[in-house]
Amino acid sequence: MKKNTYIRKILIGTPLLFILVLGLLYVDLYDSRPLLNLFKLTQSDSALELVDYSVEKPASSKAMPAANPERNAYFGDVHVHTKYSFDAYVFGVTASPDDAYKYAKGQGISHPLGFEMKLREPLDFYSVTDHGFYMGMIQAYADTSTDISQLDFAKPFNNLNRPENLTVTSGAERSNIFSSVLSAAIIQPNPWWHPETLKAWFTKNTQRALRSFDYDIHKSAWSDIARSANEHNDPGHFTAFIGYEFTTSTDTEGGNLHRNVIFNSSTASIRPWTRIDSLNPEDLWTWQDGLRDKGIDTISMPHNSNGSNGQMFEMETFKGNAINKAYAEKRMRNEPVVEITQVKGTSDTHPLLSPDDEWADFEIMDKRVGSRPPTYSKPSGSYVRQAYQDGLTLDFSNQGNPYKFGLIGSTDTHTGAGAFDESNYWSKIGLLDSTASNRGSIPINEAENKLLEEYSSSLNQPVSTIELEQGTFANTGFTQWGASGLAGAWAEENTRDSIFKAFKRKETFATTGSRIAVRFFAGYDLSSIDLNADSLVSEAYAKGVTMGSDLMNEGNKTPDFLVWAQRDKNGAALQRIQIIKGWIDMNSGTPYEKVYDVACSDGMSVDPISNRCPDNGARVNINDCSISQDAGASELKTVWNDPDFDSSAKSFYYVRVLENPTCRWSTWDAIKAGFKPREDLHETIQERAWSSPIWYVPAASKIKVNPLGGSMAVLKEEYGSWD
């Protein structure tokens, strides 16, 4: 009898408990009335759960190279996508993380069209950074052996990358799936009472509540990415970071706010933090701080600020509040470097922002990332140089400087293999931009034109073609993309910890694909160093600070800046070194900038009036892309003093190194196919490198800054009163 009573209570109590939980969950989800905080205590945060993804490997037979206290230049790519990214697999990419690391180490791998992708020489470090958002799901929709592939929304993806469908002509179908079908599938939630919705709430893992999401598949993909990084990591010889992309944007005009996140360990979170958790990058930083409290350090790296429509480097927070010192410190603690250049354009500056910079019009991509039709991205708030200036202005008004970051480059390749070489360019998106005609560098034929017209019509988009002298060209935006870029790091050895620390201290530089090495120091006695001495670097470290650092005021002394650049052995010769200076008027916070040439090739000197090097005569033969062999330098180095230095002004200085001109990828495409370069595109470019800045910090000012508007709260924080 007692047993029957007990069973009856269970049968009655279980549904009642379930109904109670559902009721409380409903109240919380729909915010119909305040919820007792006690119930919230039943939640756990799955994003902070850690997993050791270490792998057992045989002991290496290679000797560990000795660490170099003067640091070596290492080159790598920390923005790489493979089949686990939703926008890679859908465009025919089946390369795995293992394939990507093999490519980075010098092996050839296959493009979706079947041709080989291979580097001229291996890289030093690499990170597969597939989108955390829906990681692994598109491949699962395509694989008809999975349960989720049998659901209605997954049918268009079934067997999408079957061998006979890996063709250029499948691009329109794939674009439609990507633009329409995928977005419709993603927004389908489970009912609020569904068990997966309950699990989503109890583990703070919102994506579990989506009908189109399978958490086990997602974790399996993330685990494979982590495993691959750990398996290919070879301390002293090759560094592989566990990483992923946090793919977020503003929810109004679609301003790009994407970041890549890398881990400095073999242990990582059980899942990535994604835009489904929060669109707000500040919440990403909170998650990173939470991991750091558990002993796992990460950094996030913004990219494609050029396509952010002014949102990446705003003068307020994500929610429109005043920036303060706590915000600035949190941002810089978690994202010490920014990706200045990649395939989707370069984000140094824009001609509208820097009209006096003759080299500002370089690989400008002026559309918002992922917009349809390609929609203008306003320059203000979208470029690195202006962000540096705005950081000084924010600091002037006692709000801290949230834009005190270093610089790197990377590719954002979605084929597992970055296309760094202008003469051997396969762009980024698999089948979609894999041919010269699809990229817009040579005319399209009648069949291609018809496909473009049908695609544009089906999606109610403008016709993506343009009539030019040589015929009809695709005009889809790919012509604004480039064969870029690379991350450079000065580190003692090629290990995770050493390179990660270089990123943290911002002793990093960026290139557009050439392996130009650039050093940059500042101090008050660097002019005493013999530039030809073996002790140059050790003395520079001893007597000054390096890129990414602050140079503190020493009375009325004028600092020396030592810069040294070395060419890529496979690239063009160096033409000049420039130092870009930004500063503010210390009475008003008004920002200014100026570009100085500081070292010229071929024994030439800088004109003291124009601050420019003479033309070194380097030219390009557009008929065959041959370049001058008798102009330029293999290395340039100098010590420079700012002729306009003001010891009271907050300022920053960073280096830009320019190679001699060479053919752009679009020109190479054209001449290989027997056409002339497209007349509305640049025929040549100057490959370049940028150092991270050095910030000059003057003596503290006694001026009390009294900003108006929302910054009044900041003023109260700083001074304790309103007046």
How would you summarize this macromolecular structure in one to three sentences?
It is built from 17 helices and 31 strands. Helix 4 packs parallel to helix 8 (215-232) and helix 6 runs parallel beside helix 13 (446-458).
Structural class: alpha+beta
What characteristic shape results from the CA principal axes? Answer: globular
| β-strand number | 31
Low-confidence runs of at least 5 consecutive residues = none
Oligomer: single chain
Tell me the fraction of residues in β-strands, as a range. 15-25%
Q: Nearest-angstrom radius of gyration?
A: 27 Å
Q: Give average pLDDT, whole number.
A: 92
Task: Give the N-to-C terminal Cα separation.
Answer: 79 Å
- Kindly give the count of domains: 3
Largest sheet report:
11 strands, mixed
Helix fraction by DSSP (H/I, runs of at least 4): 10-25%
Number of helices: 17
Architecture overview:
This protein folds into three domains: 2-42, no CATH class; 73-440 and 476-480, no CATH class; 516-697, no CATH class. Helices cover 25% and strands 20% of the residues. Strands 2, 5, 6, 16, 17, 20, 22, 23, 27, 30 and 31 form an eleven-stranded mixed β-sheet that branches. Strands 19-18-21-26 form a four-stranded antiparallel β-sheet. The longest helix has 29 residues, at 2-30. The relative contact order is 0.11. The model has no long low-confidence stretch (mean pLDDT 92).
How would you describe this structure in keywords?
723 residues; alpha+beta; 3 domains; 11-stranded mixed sheet
